[in-house]
């Protein structure tokens, strides 16, 4: 049985290796977790002669990687440097690869072999990996991106300098990495597809220092997830889920009709609708996650607190599976974006967050006479039920930190016009602002979701 291996993606390679290549032989051991990694994909515009040189380089690369794999296989060697010393000369003699790509071939072979050997420890038969994919890794020594939108790539026959086909407007996400000095180019790869050549440019930057974990310094944004309102924050931002649910219902109707039709063309239409539906949903969730993270930044939050998602509320009506999926995805997006700003995402026990009064702590089912409406039977506080829940969720993390540290610090919950601390009560964001917490009016930033 033959198995083919694509070269590893930049996000899975270790910082050890990237330093090894970007800084020559001076090795700095840096934990890979210290870096944020992103990939920007861009098409290459190549001339016929550049195309020939790329094709030859791809062929030679596969050959080189397979030579290293063969040698590693014979010697049962999966350590990168050991395999390099065994196979490097043979690759240089038998292929047109340069030194950098010869070393990379050894490393990729070692990685593929270790995967196979690890896997086969649990299997009766072993299969030698084979490199067949039309893809080749590049790094700072074999590739340079220039400001004029061209890239220099080493090939088996000198360097070529094709143009990057970047989006016309500066809206292209690639510019966020290309034009930003904070991101530096790291392991990348060139891939041939039916419709051309693509560079998967790997970028990395150091992770910002995570928020101070001590209870004294934390400012927490509480977020309640639901269906009618996809997300409600303790700062009274309401992100409606109505359009998403409406879109979902329409999609389900069309899907049933197409399935009933059962024809070939109905199947094609269904696949297309599926993709469209997924694109729409992701865009919607990205927009909501952006709003949540912007809220956290605007109120200087160190933490964003969600309910623990393994515990889904029983009151959730219909479309259960879809919304569970959407909530998880939303939390992933928030976490991914918040990390870039040094904001930590945490989860709290969801028990009673919808039935407990945020003002007095009284907990009762009767506090919530209707789905949207919270009205405390003890102290008379009324609020939107999701907003009350968001404050409970954030507050739970503020309290949790205090209990854990055993200190009486001043962790605080972010509200719309100020923060509230366990010991000092409400503090407005601005001293001039005489607003009090009870004036916090709900607002939304997804009214324009299309
Ligand atoms: Zn109350």
UniProtKB/TrEMBL annotation:
Q: Where is this region: Disordered?
A: 401-450
- List the keywords (alphabetical): DNA recombination, DNA-binding, Endonuclease, Hydrolase, Nuclease, Transposition
Report any Pfam family annotated for this entry.
OrfB_IS605
Keyword Nuclease tagged = yes
According to the entry, every stretch annotated as the Probable transposase IS891/IS1136/IS1341 domain falls at 215-306
Q: Which GO terms describe its molecular function?
A: DNA binding; endonuclease activity
Biological process GO annotation list? Answer: DNA recombination; transposition
Cas12f1-like TNB domain: residues covered: 327-393
Question: Would you identify the family this protein belongs to, as annotated?
Answer: In the N-terminal section; belongs to the transposase 2 family. In the C-terminal section; belongs to the transposase 35 family.
Instruction: Report what the protein is called.
Output: RNA-guided endonuclease InsQ/TnpB family protein
Organism of origin is Halovivax cerinus
């Amino acid at each position: 049985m033959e198995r083919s291996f694509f070269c590893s993606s930049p996000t899975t390679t270790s910082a050890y290796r990237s330093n090894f290549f970007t800084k020559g032989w001076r090795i700095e051991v840096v934990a890979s977790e210290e870096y944020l990694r992103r990939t920007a994909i861009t098409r290459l515009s190549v001339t016929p002669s550049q195309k020939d040189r790329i094709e030859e380089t791809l062929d030679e690369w596969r050959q080189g990687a397979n030579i290293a794999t063969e040698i590693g296989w014979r010697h049962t060697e999966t350590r990168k440097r050991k395999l390099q010393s065994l196979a490097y000369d043979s690759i240089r003699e038998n292929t047109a690869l340069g030194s950098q790509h010869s070393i990379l071939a050894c490393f990729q072979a070692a990685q593929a072999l270790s995967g196979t050997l690890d896997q086969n420890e649990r299997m009766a038969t072993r299969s030698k990996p084979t490199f067949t994919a039309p893809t080749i890794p590049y790094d700072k020594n074999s590739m340079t991106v220039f400001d004029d939108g061209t890239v220099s790539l080493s090939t088996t026959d000198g360097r070529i300098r094709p143009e990057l086909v970047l989006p016309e407007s500066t809206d292209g996400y690639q510019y966020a990495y290309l034009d930003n000095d904070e991101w530096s180019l790291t392991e990348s790869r060139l891939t041939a597809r039916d419709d051309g050549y693509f560079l998967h440019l790997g970028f990395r930057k150091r992770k910002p220092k995570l928020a101070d974990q001590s209870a004294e310094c934390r400012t927490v944004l509480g977020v309640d997830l639901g269906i009618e309102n996809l997300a409600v924050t303790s700062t009274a931002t309401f992100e409606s889920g109505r359009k998403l649910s409406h879109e979902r219902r329409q999609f389900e109707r069309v899907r049933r009709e197409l399935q009933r039709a059962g024809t070939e063309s109905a199947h094609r239409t269904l696949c297309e609708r599926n993709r469209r539906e997924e694109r729409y949903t992701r865009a919607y969730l990205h927009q909501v996650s952006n709003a949540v993270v912007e809220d956290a930044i605007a109120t200087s939050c160190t933490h964003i607190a969600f309910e623990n998602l393994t515990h889904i509320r029983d009151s959730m009506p219909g479309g259960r599976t879809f919304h569970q999926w959407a909530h998880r995805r939303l939390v992933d997006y928030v976490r991914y974006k918040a990390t870039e700003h040094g904001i930590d995402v945490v989860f709290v026990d969801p028990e009673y967050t919808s039935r407990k009064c945020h003002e007095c702590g009284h907990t009762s089912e009767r506090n919530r006479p209707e789905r949207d409406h919270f009205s405390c039977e003890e102290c008379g506080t009324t609020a939107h039920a999701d907003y009350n829940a968001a404050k409970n969720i954030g507050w739970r993390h503020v309290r949790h930190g205090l209990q854990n540290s055993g200190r009486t610090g001043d962790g605080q919950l972010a509200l719309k016009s100020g923060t509230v601390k366990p010991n000092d009560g409400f503090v407005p964001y601005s001293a001039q602002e005489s607003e009090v917490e009870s004036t916090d009016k709900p607002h939304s930033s997804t009214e324009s979701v299309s």
